[in-house]
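URGENT: need a sanity check before tomorrow's submission.

F., can you look over the MFS transporter record below? I want to be sure the sequence and structure line up before it goes out.
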Amino acid sequence: MAGRQRRTGRHRRPPEAQATYREVFAVREFRALWLAQALSFIGDQLAQVALAVLVYERTGNALLTAATYALTYLPPILGGPLLSGLADVFPRRTVMIVCDVLRAVLVALMAVLALPLGALCVLVFLTVLLGTPFTAARAAVLPDVLEGDRFVAGTAINNITHQVTQMLGFLAGGAIVAAVGAREALALNALTFGASAVILVGGLRRRPAPKRRDAQSLGLWRGMRDGARLVFGDPTLRSLVSFAWLCAFYTIPEGLAAPYAATFDDSPVTVGLLMSAMPTGMVVGAFLYSRFVRPASRLRSMGWMAMLACLPLVGAGLQPPLWAVLLLWALSGVGSAYQLAANAAFVAAVPPSGRGQAFGLAQSGILAGQGLGILVGGAVAEVLGPQTVVALAGVLGLSAAAMLTLSWNQVRGAAITHAASVVAKAGDDARSSAPAS
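Structure tokens as predicted:
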């Protein structure tokens, strides 16, 4: 072990050097985290399709089916800021494994038992709720696994994996449900959670809890208040989390894909094309931004990229043809790659002991903003039409991005300096705490 640590230290790249995807996948712990995440994403897509089919087969009610699907968005918003603190109080590996095992049990109950709709909804809510501390723990441990620009490259890989599974998941999920049935598909989802837990047991090493466990640290409400005070009390963190929440504007088009498609031909194919345009752009943008833009340049260009994520949407007001709309939405997805830089800078600025709570707060805000934005956008689209709403979302998002860029330029220098010091300190801590063998 000591020999491996010395070799790692000898080949540690300077903070400015760009990491390759091959280097990232060479890290054994990252491979375990990535595979566990990919299985969870696949299982989630499969479960969403299976639940929709199961509820509709049982009730024949489209509203109840939609309400069950909506339950997948509520738990992270309601429980995210509260339960994410568990990732700072308990060992993060333990948190992830326990959450996976519990989710496997809950989904297996849905698959095996003929539950009434109310009980099924409760199990769905609890299953998604357990994903909150899991995601917070995973996000908090990733900077310990990947140092420097490897973290940015690893985040890009995770984002690309998420978008690809999202693009392909519903299609594959529908085919699997049609082939084996809804209950059997839920059983497969339970197996993905179990497999994820086994992978984490074997592939992720033990690390101590970031905080000492006592009565004060176990006060989750107190931890939530401390997390909010940490994020919003620091100008750098406040700017970065605001950049993350900017997605509330440029994700509105995805929620309006169906009514937008109706302005062309109302074809399911058109709906699918519109819904896949932005994730496709996100995949392209994440790849280009992580591979061909130097780390310091990412921080300098973050504001411009955020504006690029919103500006193309303004073109919807001109009522362009379908091919142009797809191009504009994909370009907006490319601009959203600035989230990679915001995420990396956020990690560098947050104390390691508070990562779980800070990440949970940021993620809950993202989900709440997206849900509220789509809800308001849908209501306004009933009056003004989807094209006008998308254009307005672009204008409002562009204005917010411009103001955020001005404030970010004032704190960016301190953020870069702090990030460099954190990377250097992390390397020193890793060397000093390396166990001998």
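My own read: The chain has 21 helices and no strands. The mean pLDDT is 79. If you see anything odd, call me.
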